[in-house]
Amino acid sequence: MPQPVHILHLHSSFSLGGKEARAVRLMNAFGDAARHTIVSGVPDELGARAAIGRHVRYEIAQVAPPLTGRPSVARYEALARFMRRFDLVLTYNWGAIDGVMARRVFPKGAPPLVHHEDGFNADEARGLKVERNVYRRIALGAAHALVVPSEVLEDIARRTWKQPASRVHRIANGIDTALYAQRPDARAIPGFVRNGKEVVIGVLAGLRAVKDLPLLVRACGGIAGRFRLVIVGEGPERDAILAAGHAMGIADRVVLPGFLAAPHRFVGAFDILALSSKSEQCPISVVEGMAAGLPIVSTPVGDVPRMVAAENAPFVAGGDEVLLRDALQALVTDADLRARVGAANRARARALFDEGTMVARYRGLYEDALGRPGALG
Fold first, then answer.
1. In what helix (H) or strand (E) does residue 375 lie, and over which residues does it extend?
2. Mean of per-residue pLDDT scores for the chain
3. Closest Cα partner for 97 from 69, 122, 57?
4. What are the DSSP calls for 121-132, one per residue?
């Protein structure tokens, strides 16, 4: 029996966001064909490990060179030495780009490396930093491939980071769309029970500044009609969200249950899925809402305008609270409209964003990097 492929994952953090959720789904899909070592640049942010299947062999690296810090030959050499223990290295986002640079500076004996870019934090949401663009151009020459989930990022990779088309692979984020057709679990969201008289606006997001959730709260504060806003996630912006709710006089209608695993169990309890981010690419939460048959109200970030069904296009609004409010208002007051738009979104999610297609493409890319067809099952 062949030995499992030993994969090193270099993450800026391993809390359960979009990129981590996808990485875990791939780990689960590869099963016994791989074993995994995970490095988190923030050692105590490990929430994504709870989603790793029991059948998956993995470890959290306890001693690894730092992923960030001042550029230095010594740190690059330490990273390169560490990476040589593995068959394949997967790096994720700007927070792990030094792993790619280490391979560029010390290529001898290095395993193949695939880099993934999923989007930008608040410090680059309104414009990319020139020095980071230059650094990426230099480092990414050492990668076997660069994977991006969106057309927007694919264009940035080619035009701004000067990567050849043969190295850039666009693979849309996918989910098990069939799971989201199931009836939601009425007890899945602590502190929340549907009463049938309110329209439920749901959010799946880390409570971080780039998600701009206070903007969404302010938009909801202007809605006429009965509603509840349920924001599933955890993070440092919790107090700012609560403060916005108090300022708008809707604090009693804002529910913050924290992070919840297995969103297919509860997304169907929402009537609308909302997104107020300053920066996204191919957000999994939008795919999850679409698969559950929900209309999407969102700022026009990343590929969201291209992801949703044509019927949903009018509700991908500008990035201010008035436009978001107006989009929400139209859906809050019209149940038939919500049903029509949601049905169109569900059909589109099944056609374009199913997990099986995503897993097959990643498996093929990683096996190509390894030069071992069939190595990952």
1. none
2. 94
3. 69
4. -GGGTTS--HHH
DSSP annotation string for 318-344: -SSHHHHHHHHHHHHT-HHHHHHHHHH
Task: Find, among 125, 57, 30, the residue nearest to 22 by Cα.
Answer: 30
Is pLDDT of 1 > 70? no
**301: Cβ–Cβ under 8 A, 6 or more apart, which residues?**
275, 277, 278, 279, 280, 319
Q: Residue 342 burial (CB < 10 Å; 0-12/13-18/19+)?
A: buried
**Which is nearest to 304 in space by CA: 265, 264, 345, 270?**
345
Residue whose structure tokens are 């499992």: 4
Helix, strand or coil, per DSSP, at residue 78: helix
Instruction: Tell me the residue length of the chain.
Output: 377
Judged by phi (left if over 0) then psi (alpha if -120 to 50, else beta), residue 191 lies in left
User: How far is residue 280's CA from residue 270's CA, in Å, rounded to a whole number?
Assistant: 21
Q: CA-CA distance, 293 to 3, in Å (whole number)? A: 42
Could you tell me which residues are beta bridge partners of residue 111?
A: none
* Model confidence pLDDT, tens digit, residues 37-81: 999 999 888 989 988 999 999 999 988 999 999 989 999 999 999
Residue partners of 264: CB distance under 8 A and separation at least 6: 176, 179, 180, 182, 288, 292
What tokens does 331 get? 């859906």
Cα→Cα distances 310→167, 305, 307, Å? 31, 9, 9
Could you tell me what percentage of the chain is helix, strand and coil, using 3-state DSSP and rounding each to the nearest 5?
45, 15, 40
**Nearest by Cα to 17 from 38, 40, 48, 39:** 48
CA 208 from chain center: how many Å?
A: 13
Q: How confident is the model at residue 317 (pLDDT cuts 50, 70, 90)?
A: confident
Joined together, the tokens standing for residue 193 give 């029970």
- Answer whether 172's CB lies under 8 Å from 349's CB: no
Nearest CA to 254 out of 219, 270, 230, 287 is that of 230
